[in-house]
UniProtKB/TrEMBL annotation:
Transmembrane segments: none
Record function comment: Nucleotidase that shows phosphatase activity on nucleoside 5'-monophosphates.
Encoding gene per record: surE
Protein name, as recorded: 5'-nucleotidase SurE
Keyword Ribosomal protein: no
Length: 261
């Protein structure tokens, strides 16, 4: 198996080292793991592509590249430059430093990479590690992902649903904020919504008198509804959410058609 990996935390992020080990485990001794990751952190860029500017790419070592662009740019670079002669069978993104569950999903560069994978017709899985008081101070706060990541990817490759329609299914995986030994298993879950968590802006004045705005976040332990990703994670389960990039509210089409006649 040929696997392309990327992330949004950058080429030197510890989570990418965890993903590299997961990918080698899944690819097997005769497989290949290729890395094309952002040269600098690209958290929060979503499915952004550098449409109006070129992307510089540098080879760091065998099958390892850094690109000055977004995670989606890295997927495009992998498919159309680095691996153009033999496409990957699978694209993995992560392991993100922090959860990409609930509304975080909408901003995530980790997810953006896998949206691009699906649009390009390649199987894709996003992997993120939820942090909390039970794991953030461990010697390896990514240990839940490190221990259970390969088995989770294999389960999705073997038993997951992989569609052939235009907006193909991809998967969002979040490992719970617990030690590896305390992970209870996997749960298929829908994308939740944190009612009391929003991004905002905090103004500050720099010593030179210039005014800046900092993006602020909210509490990540805010529960979501039953059967959703955050609740599964806070209960000690790895959440698996099937997704597609079709943003149409299909349940509204018929009603809206009748209203606008």
């Amino acid at each position: 198996m040929r696997i392309l990996i990327t992330n949004d935390d950058g080429i030197n992020a510890p989570g990418l080292a965890t993903l590299t080990a997961i990918a080698h485990d899944v690819a097997g001794p005769h497989g290949e793991v290729w890395t094309v990751a952002p040269a600098f952190e690209q958290s929060g860029v979503g499915h952004c592509i550098s449409y109006a500017a070129p992307t510089m790419i540098a080879k760091l070592s065998d099958r390892r590249y850094a690109a000055e662009g977004s995670p989606a740019d890295c997927v495009l670079a992998g498919l159309y430059d680095v691996m153009k002669d033999a496409r990957p069978d699978l694209i993995l993104s992560g392991v993100n430093r922090g959860n990409n569950a609930a509304d975080n999903t909408l901003y995530s560069g980790t997810i953006g990479a896998i949206i691009e994978a699906a649009i390009q017709g390649v199987k894709g899985i996003a992997l993120s590690q939820f942090f909390g008081p039970d794991n953030r101070d461990l010697d390896d706060p990514f240990e839940a992902a490190a221990k259970h990541g390969a088995a989770t990817v294999r389960a999705l490759l073997d038993k997951g649903i992989w569609t052939t329609d235009a907006y193909k299914i991809f998967y969002n995986v979040n490992f719970p904020p617990v030690a590896a030994a305390d992970v209870k298993g996997m749960k298929v879950a829908s994308q939740g919504f944190r009612e009391n968590t929003r991004f905002g802006m905090q103004p500050e004045t720099a010593p030179n008198g210039r005014r800046f705005l900092w993006v602020t976040g909210g509490p990540q332990d805010e529960p979501t509804g039953d059967g959703t990703d955050v609740n599964a994670n806070l209960d000690g389960y790895t959440s698996i959410t099937p997704m597609r990039a079709d943003l149409t509210a299909h349940d509204m089409l018929a009603d809206l058609t009748d209203r606008l006649k």
